[in-house]
Amino acid sequence: EEDRRITAYHEAGHAVVAALLPDVDDPHKVTIVPRGRSLGTTMVLPDKESYHMQKKRMLGTLAWAFGGRAAEMRFCGDSSAGASDDIRRATELARAMVTELGMSDKIGPINYGERQGSEFLGTELMSGKWHSEDTARLIDQEVERLLKDAYSTAERIVAENAHALEQITQALLAYETITGVDIKKLLAGATIE
Questions:
Q1: Is 65 within 8 Å of 18 (Cβ atoms)?
Q2: The one catalytic residue among 1, 11, 124, 193
Q3: What does the mean pLDDT of the chain come to?
Q4: Separation between Cα atoms, residue 193 and residue 177, nearest integer Å
Q5: Does the annotation mark 160 as catalytic?
Q6: pTM, two decimal places
Q7: What sign for the dihedral angle of Cα 86, 107, 101, 116?
């Protein structure tokens, strides 16, 4: 039962952050029914088809990834290993934003992504970085800044919407799966009944 409770807060955190950030897709369905390695899932669906992924959308996605951890910390007083995949995906996205997509003012529009292989030989002949240790340190600092800013955004949204998050958590504990429509109603003040 304790695992269900932690999972419910975690998924409710994702749902609230996704629902309230303008550049993140709205939650479609949230469940605490385990599937595979996942103890719960917050599924989002785009409102419209989009061919471009803009920086503001990526920043929102980073914050959404941390919604579960922020909710665990606020409501359970501790963090669990349940956020490990969220953290991994957020870190990969932030690193890509900095090293491949030119979305860091300090780094600029330079591709510092690690080369995976040769067009002709299929493997890289030389291993190693294409940049200095100073640049590597700056990249790490920028990735860390993006992640910390995103986590702060998630914490703020969770704190400002604690009552609604509690209602969503209670709905998940009662029904195990709720829809995006249910989340909107709960955010607007409806009760779980």
A1: no
A2: 11
A3: 89
A4: 14
A5: no
A6: 0.87
A7: negative
